[in-house]
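tool_log.txt
---
The assistant was asked to compare two proteins side by side. It first ran the structure predictor on the initial sequence, then on the second. Raw inputs and outputs are pasted verbatim so the downstream comparison step can read them without reformatting.
(1)
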Amino acid sequence: MFEVRVKDDFAAAHFLKDYHGKCENLHGHNYKVYVHVSGTQLDEGGMLLDFSILKKALKKVLASIDHTNLNDISFFKDNPSAERIAVYIYDSLIKTLSEEGKDLSSSSPSGTKICRIDVFETDTNRARYIPD
């Protein structure tokens, strides 16, 4: 099994509507995002997936939420937790990559897939999404 990982970041504001504490107030984070891809087959160049393809797709996805109030995006249903942000990034990456002819979903015929998304709100607080 091989695994590659890329990292990028974005800044955004949010509040958690159903939270009872200081996070129910509007505040912001400088998020760090790690995307992990795994698989067993290398391409003719000896790579699982070209880093530049994954980085370009991640940059495009993060540009759509960078410097926004995440609560304004309907996907988050007023509670843009780090867990929901990770799912949003996964879903958006699958769509963006499929538009480029790359299937990295969990049902990919090649077996190469996005195996997890890590979203760090701070250096010590992380949420992880692992697709089925």
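(2)
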Amino acid sequence: MSWDKTDGVYRYEVYATYCGKKFPKKPTKTTKSTSVTIKKIDFTKNFKLYVKAYDSNGNVVGNSVHTHFAGKDHEKYKNPKDIKLGAKTITLDKGQSTKIKASVKMENGKKKALPDDHVAKLRYRSNNQNVAKVDSKGNVTAVGTGTCTVYVYAKNGFAKKVAVTVN
């Protein structure tokens, strides 16, 4: 698993478990890098994970979304491999709203995606809710002037960015 470098982050904790189980209290891996390899995974099962980021003083500075994966050897399910966006930039006036148009492209083959009752097909997160808020359906509402990024996540954590400017 890998992720983008974030300014001000000193170390990361990765929590992983099989779907249907609770996350462990202790991290599965701790690293200063932006990637980890977790060994001894049964790839015939589905699993989930998330990352917690800390600054150099040991303060939590953020958590990733919970990502859900179909094991690569699962007989029934496959994973998303891309997200297609209708637009990579949005400009709104304060108080206006719009919907992010996005769709998921799946891995090749006849297997199915993990069910939507397991985890939503797409999830959304604004990195600055003082500029724009986004709901679970991708509706973006301009709150205050400035710029922010809305991340669109597939079930497995694959993400695309939408740049939002509010006048």
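---
observation on (2): The two ends are 37 Å apart (CA to CA). Residues 27 and 47 are 15 Å apart (CA to CA).
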